[in-house]
């Protein structure tokens, strides 16, 4: 039964991802803003709802380590697995604003997570004040991204076409229908996949700690995976990049900000290795943009990303 539920969940993810991508493309055309900005905001927050739900419920139940573990695991999975797969399908090209603004914000949020959980005070937690700081920074960074993103005229023009050069002319009702149904499909499909995968992992004898950092994190990241792959396949790589970078920023600043404001989040079984791995993958993304692929993630780098994730999981199992 768990395997059947997993298949149903994957089907919902596939359909939901396709509808959400179409809705976001239509929204970008309507607002005449870069697709990346829509991916960074609407798509990123929408696909991060599973992480928010799991983390908030964990915080309310007193399992702060599950909330932090879910975010750290999701951020690692997002960059290494999702961007790795997307780059293998089609190399991902960074814009100038990605390098100057978005990746540094993602790296800064990751360093702030390390600062709050490992160095500020001796509690090894994210308290309410720190949670409010994270929330304020999320609002500021989002406003800044929207304002500066409107200046990218080339990407705005690209957002008015369907990826094949044909003009997008979608009514608001249809745009919202695509987005809402797409998000519902992603969230419910992701939940089905998460529950079934967790049950399967437990049946295989995998420990709860490993499940939290890998299976739960990967499960709540399935909406990002499905929507990003759908965006790349439909020739919308900027949506995929915006979705992943935006999700990673939202996971730390928005989700941990909300959860920390509700109730202080303790580290528990989350180790410094997990926290610094979040920082490391953000650095890897910056290196890909500046040094290795020079403003792009190549297919070879995509394979390398997947290999790094496998190595990380092997370290956890040991």
Question: Helices and strands in order, then pairings?
Answer:
Elements: H1 2-31, H2 35-47, H3 49-60, H4 64-89, E1 92-93, H5 96-119, E2 125-126, H6 128-149, H7 153-158, H8 172-203, H9 208-220, H10 222-233, H11 237-262, E3 265-266, H12 272-292, E4 296-297, H13 299-317
Antiparallel strand pairs: 1-4, 2-3
Helix pairs in contact: 1-2, 1-8, 1-10, 2-6, 2-11, 3-4, 3-11, 4-9, 4-10, 4-11, 4-12, 4-13, 5-6, 5-11, 5-12, 6-11, 8-9, 8-10, 10-11
> How much helix, percentage-wise, in residues?
over 70%
Q: Count the beta strands.
A: 4
Largest sheet: 2 strands, antiparallel
Could you tell me the strand content as a percent range? Answer: under 5%
CATH superfamily: NCX, central ion-binding region
The CATH class is Mainly Alpha
Number of domains: 1
Rg calculated over all Cα atoms: 18 Å
Level-2 CATH architecture: Up-down Bundle
- Spatial arrangement of strands, main beta sheet: 1-4
Mean of pLDDT: 79
The topology string of helices and strands comes to HHHHEHEHHHHHHEHEH
In angstroms, what separates the terminal alpha carbons? 30 Å
Count of runs of 4 or more consecutive helical residues: 13
């Amino acid at each position: 039964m768990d395997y059947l539920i997993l298949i149903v969940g994957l089907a919902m993810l596939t359909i939901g991802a396709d509808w959400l991508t179409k809705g976001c493309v239509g929204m970008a055309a309507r607002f005449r803003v870069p697709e990346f900005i829509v991916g960074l905001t609407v798509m990123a927050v929408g696909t991060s709802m599973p992480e928010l739900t799991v983390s908030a419920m964990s915080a309310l139940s007193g399992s702060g380590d599950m909330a932090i573990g879910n975010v750290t695991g999701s951020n690692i999975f997002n960059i290494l697995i999702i961007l790795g797969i997307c780059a293998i399908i089609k190399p991902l090209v960074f814009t100038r604003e990605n390098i100057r603004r978005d990746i540094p914000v993602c790296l800064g949020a990751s360093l702030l997570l390390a600062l709050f959980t490992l160095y500020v005070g001796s509690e090894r937690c994210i308290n309410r004040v720190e949670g409010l700081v994270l929330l304020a920074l999320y609002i500021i960074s989002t406003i800044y991204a929207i304002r500066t993103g409107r200046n990218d005229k080339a990407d705005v023009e690209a957002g008015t076409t369907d990826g094949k050069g044909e003009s997008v002319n979608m009514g608001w009702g249809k745009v919202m229908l695509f987005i809402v149904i797409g998000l519902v499909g992603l969230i419910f499909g992701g939940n089905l996949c998460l529950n079934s995968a967790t049950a399967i992992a437990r049946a295989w004898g995998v420990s709860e700690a490993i499940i939290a950092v890998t299976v739960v994190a990967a499960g709540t990241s399935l909406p990002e995976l499905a929507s990003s792959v759908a965006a790349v396949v439909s020739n919308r790589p900027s949506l995929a990049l915006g979705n992943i970078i935006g999700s990673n920023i939202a996971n730390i600043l928005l989700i941990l900000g909300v959860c920390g404001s509700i109730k202080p989040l303790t580290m528990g079984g989350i180790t410094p290795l997990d926290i610094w791995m979040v920082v490391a993958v953000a650095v890897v993304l910056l290196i890909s943009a500046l040094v290795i692929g020079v403003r792009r993630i190549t297919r070879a780098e995509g394979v390398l990303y997947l290999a790094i994730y496998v190595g990380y999981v092997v370290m956890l199992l040991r």
